[in-house]
């Protein structure tokens, strides 16, 4: 699905701002048929949970209603009118006046409603959106809704981050011509010093077949460097400037629909510009290659989580977070545990940050809940749990993710799930069709999944299906708490086991320790800032001893909110930054390590690991 962009033939009106707001318990019957009478207003984009002081709103399970009045620009006569939502968490019903115009399930991918013929240029309409936050075993992520003795619904779920809900990403009213560019796909390669670009353009509208397609590649100086005709084809960019980690370079693919198929002779019907970067991604043996060069991931698992706004997209935090990642020396991050806002990936494209793009499939592991409660776990992939409809829903989420993000040069790998029960019966039957689907939709990017602690090199059932082994481990925190010496032995044995069995690149997709800012100790005291730094240093010693190792993503970039629980105090505190982005001691430790790594030579075939700029041996750092 194309991201909204203005062009000579397209306009956009932002619908962000304050909307009328009410819970379904207070909105009355059929609230889309009239003006909401609630005195509450909610900002868009934002989660609604933390905005108000009313506990009923924060704890609400079910539908909440948003409403505003919208005027269609009078100049859009004869145009196609499209309403686009960046995301609604987790399901949406959209009404224009009294008419249902769209429904969507899935809280982290966009959807549209074609309003052509429903609304009139120059006229106003009432826009009402029902936002349903409920999670079940037929949603991604999954959850369970029960009804308490007081008649209220209660939500439980299997992931360790707060179930924020609302219209959390931008809403836009867009115009396009009646015949329009519907989709663009760009795949890049290299031939010596030249870039090779395969493109495909899909068109929509009644007269789409009568239009011709012209594409032009335009460099950052505004020069046309290649041109081609037809709905699909290949062109070359001589002396191409590559998109590289830390050195982003973007071209624009200007797609034009013309009334005739003679170069420059037709009348312009529609124009859409798709930015793209020329780069290649490959897994070769135990190395991860970008543009043919070994790449070593340094960075974080993150969350879209900020005070007050919850998961609402915020450009100020976007800029500041990227600044902090650059300050630490990070070159990458994982979109844990859902697709992030399109604006985040656009920013990563422009600034050369590498992204592992993850679906919202977190919580496909009933063994985790058994481990927390002591109750005997029920089989995760049993038909009554996640072995039935869930797989079909997961596949649809994967389609929407790849459709949305396929043209981002920053995205170098798809992550199909976080901590699934890959050690349980039924895991292979569940994941094999998803892997086949992902490779069919995008054969150009490697695939991974983040392995849970219960999955070991001995019992994992799906590792051979994927290209990179991403491992989540917490030796020294959940296991061998406070005993880093023992934790180091078990960690190294574990990681070497994955490398021996599968012969694939291995990276650490999560490792970290909860840390209370301001707590200090001269001993190995869990929750202290010193312990977090020493914990990370121990992991880094192990990483530097493994020739198959290709990256390290600390959990987490910043503290984030979770559901109520006695093992959490005001959220998850594994961030190296606080929730309001103040650095803990570990942030400075990471900065010393990552800014010292020689990233020109990571993952070399001879087994050498990254060197340090001052000549010290890897793993020998003692200043943290």
Give a description of the structure.
- There is one protein chain.
- This protein has 624 residues and is α/β, with parallel strands linked by helices.
- It has 10 helices and 30 strands.
- The strands form 7 sheets. An 8-stranded parallel beta barrel has the order 23-24-25-26-27-28-29-30, surrounded by 5 helices.
- Helix 3 links the parallel strand 23 and strand 24.
- The C terminus is likely disordered.
Binned, the helix content reads 10-25%
Low-pLDDT runs of 5+ residues are 599-624
Through-space gap between termini: 46 Å
Number of helices: 10
Q: Which sequence of strands runs across the widest sheet?
A: 23-24-25-26-27-28-29-30
Whole-number mean pLDDT: 92
Q: Report the structural category.
A: alpha/beta
Backbone CA Rg: 25 Å
Please tally the β strands and state the result: 30
The outline comes out as: globular
Largest sheet: 8 strands, parallel, barrel
Task: Tell me the strand percentage band.
Answer: 25-35%
Helices and strands in order, then pairings?
Layout: E1 11-14, E2 17-23, H1 24-27, E3 41-44, H2 55-58, E4 63-71, E5 80-85, E6 91-96, E7 99-105, E8 111-114, E9 124-132, E10 143-147, E11 153-157, E12 171-176, E13 180-191, E14 194-204, E15 212-218, E16 224-229, E17 232-237, E18 251-258, E19 268-276, E20 281-284, E21 287-290, E22 293-294, E23 297-301, H3 315-328, E24 332-334, H4 342-351, E25 354-358, H5 366-373, H6 389-405, E26 411-418, H7 427-441, E27 447-451, E28 469-472, H8 484-502, E29 506-510, H9 529-543, E30 549-555, H10 585-594
Parallel strand pairs: 23-24, 23-30, 24-25, 25-26, 26-27, 27-28, 28-29, 29-30
Antiparallel strand pairs: 1-12, 2-3, 2-4, 4-9, 5-8, 5-12, 6-7, 6-9, 10-11, 13-14, 14-17, 15-16, 15-18, 18-19, 20-21, 21-22
Helix pairs in contact: 6-7, 8-9, 9-10
EC number: 3.2.1.31
Pfam families: Glyco_hydro_2 (PF00703), Glyco_hydro_2_C (PF02836), Glyco_hydro_2_N (PF02837)
Domain Glycoside hydrolase family 2 catalytic: 281-596
């Amino acid at each position: 699905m194309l991201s909204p962009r203005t062009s000579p033939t397209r306009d956009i009106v932002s619908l962000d701002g304050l909307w009328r707001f009410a819970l379904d318990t207070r909105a009355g019957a059929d609230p889309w048929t009239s003006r909401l009478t609630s005195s509450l207003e909610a900002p868009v984009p934002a989660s609604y949970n933390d905005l108000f002081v009313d506990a009923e709103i924060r704890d609400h399970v079910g539908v909440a209603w948003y409403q505003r009045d919208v005027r269609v620009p009078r100049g859009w006569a004869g145009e196609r009118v499209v309403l686009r939502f960046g995301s609604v968490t987790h399901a949406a019903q959209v009404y224009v006046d009294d008419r249902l115009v769209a429904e969507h399930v899935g809280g982290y991918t966009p959807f549209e409603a074609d309003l052509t013929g429903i609304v009139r240029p120059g006229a106003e309409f009432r826009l009402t959106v029902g936002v349903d936050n409920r999670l079940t075993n037929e949603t991604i992520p999954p959850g369970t809704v029960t009804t308490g003795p007081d008649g209220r619904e209660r939500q439980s779920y299997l992931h360790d981050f707060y179930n924020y809900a609302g219209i959390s990403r931008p809403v836009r009213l867009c115009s396009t011509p009646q015949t329009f560019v519907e989709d663009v796909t760009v795949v890049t390669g290299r031939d010596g010093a030249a870039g090779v670009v395969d493109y495909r353009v899909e068109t929509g509208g009644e007269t789409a077949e009568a239009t011709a397609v012209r594409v032009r590649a335009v460099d950052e100086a505004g020069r046309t460097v290649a041109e081609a005709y037809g709905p699909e084809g290949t062109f070359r960019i001589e002396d191409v400037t590559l998109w590289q980690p830390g050195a982003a370079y973007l071209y624009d693919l200007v797609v034009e629909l013309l009334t005739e198929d003679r170069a420059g002779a037709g009348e312009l019907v529609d124009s859409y510009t798709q930015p793209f970067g020329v780069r290649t991604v490959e897994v070769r043996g135990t190395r991860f290659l970008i543009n043919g060069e070994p790449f070593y991931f340094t960075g974080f698992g993150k969350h879209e989580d900020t005070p007050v706004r919850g998961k609402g997209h915020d450009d100020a935090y976007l800029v500041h977070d990227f600044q902090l990642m650059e300050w630490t020396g990070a070159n990458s991050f994982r979109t844990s545990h859902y697709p992030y806002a399109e604006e985040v990936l656009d920013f990563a494209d422009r600034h050369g940050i590498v992204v592992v793009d993850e679906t919202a499939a977190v919580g496909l592991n009933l063994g985790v809940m058994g481990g927390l409660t002591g109750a005997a776990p029920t089989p995760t992939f049993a038909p009554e749990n996640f072995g039935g409809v869930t797989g079909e829903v997961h596949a649809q989420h994967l389609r929407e993710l790849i459709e949305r993000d396929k043209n981002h040069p920053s995205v170098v790998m798809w992550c199909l799930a976080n901590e699934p029960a890959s050690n349980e019966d039924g895991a292979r039957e569940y994941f094999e069709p998803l892997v086949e689907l992902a490779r069919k939709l995008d054969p150009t990017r490697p695939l991974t999944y983040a392995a849970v602690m219960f999955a070991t090199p001995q019992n994992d059932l799906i590792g051979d299906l994927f290209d990179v082994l991403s491992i989540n481990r917490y030796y020294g925190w959940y296991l061998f708490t406070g005993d880093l010496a023992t934790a180091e032995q078990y960690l190294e044995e574990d990681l070497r086991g994955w490398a021996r069995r599968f012969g694939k690149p291995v990276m650490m997709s999560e490792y970290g320790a909860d840390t209370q800012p301001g707590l200090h100790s001269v001993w190995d005291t869990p929750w202290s800032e010193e312990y977090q730094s020493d914990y990370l240093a121990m992991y880094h010693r192990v990483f530097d001893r493994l020739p198959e190792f290709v990256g390290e993503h600390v959990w987490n970039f910043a503290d984030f909110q979770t559901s109520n629980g006695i093992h959490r105090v005001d959220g998850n505190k594994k961030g190296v930054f606080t929730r309001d982005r103040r650095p803990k001691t570990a942030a400075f430790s990471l900065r010393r390590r990552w800014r010292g790594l020689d990233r020109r030579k990571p993952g070399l075939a001879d087994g050498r690991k990254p060197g340090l700029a001052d000549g010290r041996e890897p793993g020998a750092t003692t200043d943290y």
